[in-house]
């Protein structure tokens, strides 16, 4: 199916989370039980302004953290998206799905990002 630019495509697996819209701990527990954290995160994409054109980003999920506002994952290219509380959005490249799942389940998102995620190549969006 072709989706016109600017529209978002959602899979059925994503819709159950969208309807729930609960806190990150509940979201992480539900998806961890299903074994589908990384797979379900990348289903829905949004367009954001990029250099020269709009670039797609995965569905971003709010997290409880004093440093990190939202996280997302693109499983097609293994990129982790981290939006900080100041609004800056960074893409960390070549992050394996298991590492992103650890981030999603980490008690301290900021500590995990600093200790693990920031070791990967990144770009600011």
Account of the protein in words:
With 125 residues, the chain is of the alpha+beta class. It has one domain. Helix content is 33%, strand content 26%. It is built from five helices and seven strands, in the order αααββββββααβ. The chain has helices at 12-20, 24-34, 37-41, 97-105, 109-115; strands at residues 45-49, 54-58, 61-62, 68-74, 79-84, 89-92, 122-124. Strands 3-4-5-6-7 form a five-stranded antiparallel β-sheet. Strand 4 and strand 5 form a beta hairpin. The longest helix has 11 residues, at 24-34. The radius of gyration is 14 Å and the shape is globular. 26% of the residues are buried.
Keywords:
5 helices; alpha+beta; disordered N terminus; two-stranded antiparallel sheet; 125 residues; 7 strands; single chain; five-stranded antiparallel β-sheet
Topology:
Blueprint: H1 12-20, H2 24-34, H3 37-41, E1 45-49, E2 54-58, E3 61-62, E4 68-74, E5 79-84, E6 89-92, H4 97-105, H5 109-115, E7 122-124
Antiparallel strand pairs: 1-2, 3-4, 4-5, 5-6, 6-7
């Amino acid at each position: 199916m072709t989706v016109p630019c600017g529209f978002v495509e959602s899979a059925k697996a994503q819709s159950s989370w969208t309807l729930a819209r609960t806190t990150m701990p509940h979201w992480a527990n539900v998806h961890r039980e299903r074994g589908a954290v990384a797979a379900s995160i990348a289903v829905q994409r949004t367009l954001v302004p990029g250099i020269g054109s709009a670039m797609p980003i995965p569905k971003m999920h709010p997290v409880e953290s004093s440093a990190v506002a939202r996280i997302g994952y693109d499983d097609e290219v293994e990129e982790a998206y981290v939006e900080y509380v100041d609004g800056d959005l960074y893409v960390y490249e070549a992050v394996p799905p298991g590492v992103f799942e650890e981030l999603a389940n980490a008690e301290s998102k900021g500590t995990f990002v600093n200790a693990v995620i920031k070791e990967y190549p990144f770009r600011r969006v």
